[in-house]
Amino acid sequence: MRTLTQTVLRPLVAVGGEQAVLAVAGCIISNACFVAAAVTLYALGQYTLRNERLAYIASLLFVFAPSNMFMSAVYTESLFAWLVFSAMLCIARRQHVVASLLLCASSLCRSNGVMYAGYLVWDVVVRREAWIGKRWTQMVVRAVAAAGLVAVSVLGFVGFQIYGYRTHCLQPLYPNHPSRAYCDGLPATVYGFVQAEYWDVGFLRYYTWSQIPNFLLAAPMIVLSIAGIYTCAAHDPVRLATLGWKR
User: Fold this and answer.
1) Which tens digits make up the pLDDT trace of 101-157?
2) What is the distance, to the nearest Å, from the Cα of residue 57 to the centroid of all Cα atoms in its chain?
3) Which of 37, 59, 97, 171 can bridge 81 by disulfide, Cβ–Cβ 3.0-4.6 Å?
4) Cα 117 versus chain centre, distance
5) Angle at which helices 136-153 and 155-165 cross, to 10°
6) pTM
7) How far, in whole angstroms, is CA 99 from its chain's centroid?
């Protein structure tokens, strides 16, 4: 954002001020990433489904989702979606190293990016084609490779936690103020502390009457997700239950 403000958008600073131009730069970046995410999802759908129509419908559902207001806001949602979809496309193409680097970047954007490393494990070790007809030594090599790919994928998340700990605990910005509570906890996660301290996030805490509007906002996607899972289960329950081991 700052780079864009100080280069391409620099003439606007004299008109609207730096803070306003920073907001404009953030909106431009978010919307550009949103478009890139939709295009990448379409490419992913075409590659995996072999069906242009289904890929197109999936991209449209992504674009016109009720929550897509967050994709245009100055936030990490759009960039995160683009990185994850790109990583998934690389996994489908067996480009595992590139995928792990993209997931590393996604976990730097958002902590839940580490969860997508499971797709690397599935593709390298779990899926049927990965182990059928392989010797045990080959499977050991695959398991070690999968562990290395996962380690790379979570580096972004770990690096951000280290940065936060060094900034707020080892070298605090305000030395005279008492240290934050999360500095004494292990592991000291910045995001987890912010969620619990300021957002009241915790087990079942979200399920309150005041959150009904948010549930209504998410309802269309929940219904579509349930319908999709049900359709997949009805079409091939054995394959779904065994994660593709049996067909």
Assistant:
1) 999 999 999 888 999 999 999 999 887 776 777 787 888 888 999 999 999 999 999
2) 21
3) 37
4) 10
5) 40
6) 0.83
7) 12
CB 122 within 8 A of CB 99: no
Q: Which residues contact 245 (CB under 8 A, 6 or more apart)?
A: 126, 127, 128
CB 119 within 8 A of CB 91: yes
pLDDT tens sequence across 55-89:
999 999 899 877 777 888 888 899 999 999 999 99
Separation in Å, CA 169 to CA 2, 133, 157, 184: 26, 52, 18, 9
Supply the pLDDT for residue 165: 82
Q: Which ranges of the chain would DSSP assign to H, the alpha helix?
A: 2-6, 10-16, 18-49, 52-63, 69-72, 77-92, 96-109, 117-121, 128-131, 136-153, 155-165, 190-198, 212-235, 237-241
